[in-house]
Amino acid sequence: MMIFSQQSFAQKLSELKPQIENILKKYKAKVGVAIHNQDYNDSLIFHGDHHFPFQSTYKFHLGIAVLDQVDKGKLKLNQVVEISKAKVTTELYSPIKDKYPNGTSLPLSEILYYTIAESDNVGCDILFELLGGTEVVDKYFKDLGYKNFDIKLTEEVQQANWDRQFENWTTVGASNQVLHDYYVNKDNRLSPESYKFLWDTMRATKTGQDRIVNLLPKGTIVAHKTGTSGRNRKTGEIAATHDIGVVTLPNSKVFYISVLVSESLEGDANSAKIIAEVAKAAWDFYTSK
Questions:
Q1: What is the C-alpha separation between 125 and 120, in angstroms, rounded?
Q2: Residues known to be catalytic
Q3: What is the pLDDT of residues 20-71, one digit of tens each?
Q4: Which domains, and CATH codes, for the chain?
């Protein structure tokens, strides 16, 4: 379990509000922002009640639920999982599919890595199936008291119909709460081995390099998970350009940040730029005082 100093950041995030407002007003998008300090006793939230489509950020939650089953002895990270050719015969984004077009067998740990760090959709749905369905992940968190989210559909189902992606939803505050609780390993929910695996994998995330990490100093440690939708052919809107994560500051303290961009008419590059600018503003806020 990671132990932190109890000293809070002296400055209050409310001071950052005008700057974030100036960033958001430049763009045609619905943007949810949640920033919390290390001690989780100071926050800045925009559009906190809005239901944003989860998209692939829920793979972080899925990974936690899988690791919980590992810790309970029901699964093993080194167990081999069969991936049939039928499972990789799909239009879904999947590095597993690209590398193994005829199917393969992989250890559970590798499928978890692909799913979280590379946002693999085939791996994601294999893990949901292994657990017994999306409802198992949803129930795991709700039994612990988490609210303001729903995990209902696999990647295959939510990506087959534009409207269905909105059945998987979260708020920015709910995303930050899970980030915080599992980063500090609240109530020792994960074993030391599973904790290390989860956060090493989050720090290895390869997707979304144009988002939280983009404008931060080179070498900044960011453990994060992205989510991305396509574009609505009728309206031109992008439903989801997301990134949620834990950013380590030069003084080794951290802050938690979720930026969920929806209903965006800005295109892919500018939608990601919103996230990068908000993250940079938070970074500058904490490092300039």
A1: 9
A2: 56, 155
A3: 999 999 999 999 999 999 999 999 999 999 999 999 999 999 999 999 999 9
A4: 13-287 (3.40.710.10)
Rounded CA-CA distance 286/269 in Å is 26
pTM above 0.90, yes or no: yes
Q: Where are the beta strands (DSSP E) in 192-276?
A: 222-228, 241-248, 254-262
- Where helices occur in 10-93 by DSSP H, the ranges are 17-24, 58-71
Question: For 154-181, what is the mean pLDDT?
Answer: 97
E-strand ranges in 24-158 read 30-36, 43-46, 52-53, 80-83, 104-107, 149-150
Two tokens, residue 252: 């080794």
Q: Look at phi and psi of residue 221 and say left if phi exceeds 0, alpha if psi is from -120 to 50, else beta.
A: beta
Which has the closest alpha carbon to 127: 89, 92, 155, 152?
Answer: 155
Determine the pLDDT at residue 10.
62
Distances (CA, A) of 71 to 44, 64, 129, 196, 259: 34, 10, 18, 13, 31
Q: Note the Cα 221 to chain centre separation in Å.
A: 15
- Alpha carbon 72 to its chain's center: 24
- Residue 14's Cβ-count burial label (10 Å; 0-12, 13-18, 19+) is exposed
Residues making up the chain, counted from first to last: 289
CB 205 within 8 A of CB 59: no
Confidence of residue 174 (pLDDT cuts 50, 70, 90): very high
Q: What mean pLDDT is reported for the chain? A: 96
